[in-house]
């Protein structure tokens, strides 16, 4: 089998309400922009992958074609060896590997996780918020998720004063003593889409938050409290608290995870199959976590295709938690998965990996056509 070409579709899907993502300080997201890639083969099988985009984004079709046309999509290890050329030419390209697995799975007639030794056991999902909201509003959200069967919710921290964020968590803990909480500070990497860069915590502020969370209790982890490559500072924080420290969603591949392990910077390794590692190297990170006694909990927040890719990574490992992005009214699961014929849903707080061949998702090509710019 040979790769014969790449098609890039730039999609812009309007959200039903503006979404104030905590990682875009001062900015309001009114649409979900996605670069959807098709990888075509001479046997008529096409694989897909997707990456977050932005208005006027990059034309990557020629870059990927220059590297991938003529290659056998089954030869993932070989292709991973030269994806740094794509990086050199202007794009971090690990997400293209997801389309190779989509092809391999379709060719084999099996879901990706099954080819990687996984199973179709439902995975416990945590409801992942995306915005910083006052306590009363967040209490309603948590009540709705708990009614749906969720046993864990991830809050976003990033208010000017960390005590404001801690107060929200304290209020939720009072009302929901059994709820598992995760906290994400999004201080790992910058997302300068709205003309501002957010305030990053000092080590002292991170320690203050960790101490506050210790008192609140049943906090699964504190995510990205400090810049993602500040390995030593993260280790200092980790040494100072019993709260697990998590990160790694957007780091560049295996080497960064080796640094986290070497420096004892984190407790929870969180590669994303789209942003950080692809699926195969994500599984290698799971192996590193297993061997060195770290937790493994992939990041998933991008769009329906990204969630599906990470679900296969989760199902192919023994990960405990699946991040389930959900922030009404703007970022609902149906909006997140707008390019899919069927929304990826939870049942009683669990999510089941798609079991059709490859990624197992059915792209709605009418929607692709309608949202393409
Ligand atoms: Mg995060």
UniProtKB/TrEMBL annotation:
Q: Which molecular function term from Gene Ontology is one that the record holds?
A: lyase activity
Keyword terms: Lyase
Is Lyase set as a keyword in this record?
yes
Domain Mandelate racemase/muconate lactonizing enzyme C-terminal, chain residue ranges per copy: 135-244
Q: Which PANTHER family match?
A: D-GALACTONATE DEHYDRATASE, D-GALACTONATE DEHYDRATASE-RELATED
One Pfam family here:
MR_MLE_C
List the CDD domains. MR_like
From what superkingdom does this record's organism come? Archaea
Q: What is the protein's name according to its record? A: Mandelate racemase/muconate lactonizing family protein
Q: What species was this sequence derived from?
A: Halorubrum kocurii JCM 14978
